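Example complex used in Figure S2.
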Amino acid sequence: MWRTSLAVAAILLAGAAQAQQQPAKITDEVVKLGILNDQSGTYADLAGPGSVAAARMAVEDFGGTVLGKPIQVVFADHQNKPDVGSSIVNRWIDVDQVDAVVDVPTSSVALAVQEITRNKNRVHLNSTGGTSDLTGKACSPTAVHWTYDTYALANGTGTAVVKAGGDSWFFLTADYAFGHALEQDTANAVKKAGGTVVGAVRHPFPNNDFSSFLLQAQASGAKVIGLANAGADTINAIKQAREFGIVQAGQRMAGLLVFLSDVHALGLDTTQGLTLTTGWYWDRDEQSRQWAKRFAERMNGRMPTMVQAGVYSAITHYLNAIKAAGTDEAKAVVAQMKKMPVNDFFAKNGKVREDGRMVHDMFLVQVKKPEESKGPWDYYNIVRTIPGDEAFRPMNQGNCPLVQQAEAQPAGR
Amino acid sequence: MMAAGVRIAAVAGVLAALLLAPFAIYPVFLMKALCFALFASAFNLLIGYVGLLSFGHAAFFGFSAYVAGHAAKVWGWPPEAALLAATLVAAVMGVVFGALAIRRQGIYFAMVTLALAQMIFFLSLQAEFTGGEDGIQAIPRGVLLGVFDLGKPLVMYYFVLAVFLLGFLIIWRTINSPFGWVLKAIRENEPRAVSLGYRVDRYKLLAFVLSATLSGLAGGIKALVFQLASLTDVHWHASGEVVLMTLLGGLGTVLGPAVGAVLIVGIQNYLAALGAWVTIVQGVVFVVVVLLFRRGIVGELLARRRKGV
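Predicted assembly (722 residues):
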């Protein structure tokens, strides 16, 4: 009783506070989006210039103005260095009137941007950053995590592969915190779905020679080899597994962090049969195909990755929220984003949760054999649609302080 | 007499410019430039005046950033204590690294320092308290001596400036002391310094520790400026970057490394929108400097003036 009345009082107070704010305000007469990502390094292909193109498309499709004020796009290369990213974002906010920072791959940079945008009250729309801490212990009332996170990929792949018959697993894990977390999340999902983990081997980070680790994985007899690593490590492991003929011998490889651009770079011959989870695939339905074709026209025929599509979708939702809320004040806009469902070529009935997680369906896909592929970029067979609520981490397990507040629980720690 | 007057006027001019700079230029950029300027100056103490090329200075710079970050965030230490801890840790590391490395010369010295620095990188990647590849985020800047709120950009800038000037003064004083002259003697001709009765190893070690300590100070203050500490600063790229800054500005000149640091940080910050071109611009600048003024920007200016007079 007491708790309910308290909650009611809190809602009334919040409502009153909102009513007092004068709406229909766009600060500095412009809505500026800052695309911060890696333009030249490891992540340039999967996000990079493509994300900037997606952002520009979103702004053009929106009409170029919101509430009568122009929308501008700026971008910068954070070179995967948190201090470079941090100084760019600080300058964007303090000097250049940027209202929202978008994309942001590389966990360390994403977490740094999360803190700056929280302190300076600007919006952070993260599409390419992987760490699930963004909606966990580092969650912020001004941030939304759009496309995927490592938990969803690990959990999605773990559960779905077991359901598809791959019930014994062996992990190839990059020996540092990120790799361990990825292995842990996947192993939990595998066990929960009724599978077993036969073993795991830790490889140094970064690593070039996977032969001894792959032989161990092969000898384990597990049906599935899970790659709990990222970037160049994953690519090297897949290439060398091909040389050992592991997939041809009947074992299945599961990539926990693989993007369409990686498959494109490696080629179908090397990647065929690889199982992975993706937040979006361009060739899923008519709507997504149409958008992807428009994107490809701008990008010399390159099809969009899930995170590039996510940038478009997130920006569109953000601009719609500004329109609906009548202001570009960060907290109000993000609160509005949480009220509206997401329905576009990217997500069906997606919703932004209290902790900032955009929950939408994920897809378990298997890379096609070269003879199945009808042309360039025709790479995936969708094996299973993973409902959003099943894919993403339940809100109460993330230790997000916002959620604890909302549920009026005593603050932990 | 005249020269001394000019010099005093020049120093006063530069100081005034530094004090007024945050009103004209974005303070966060200035603070970053100052951190790297101190780092490069500390590095230059070793390569420019003793002739030892360390390829592991990122270890002191980056690891101290973690120490300062951890002390300020987890232990809740005030900024001055966190900085002191960072500096002390760097000093201790300097003693260990130095004692091992100065036994060798030239490329072997560089390789020993690189190997030790890679060990620190591995430690930073694996250790619990560094946060692995995520790094330490949201480090509080705190209140300096219980009086100055470093959360305000201007206050933080003047604090960084004070720390930089202090470090710079220590370096300047070292170079222009009898100790500094012995270092230069070792650089020019080590066997001769030995034959004159100097215990060369002790001088080298002391210079190494001093350089490491000041690099640590620079790393610690950087962690407070950006409120984060990450693998970038312990990575060997950072060791290479500081060599680049020192070479660009002018090896063995007092102001050179600082100028080089401002240049490189400026390129990284203001040309970030060029994307892939940033590294190419850096490369072109480096090639131009090496081809046209091999002594570095400041080194060349000094040489021209000397020739003119």
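Chain A has two domains: 26-148+287-361, 151-278. Chain A touches chain B through 37 residues (CB under 8 Å).
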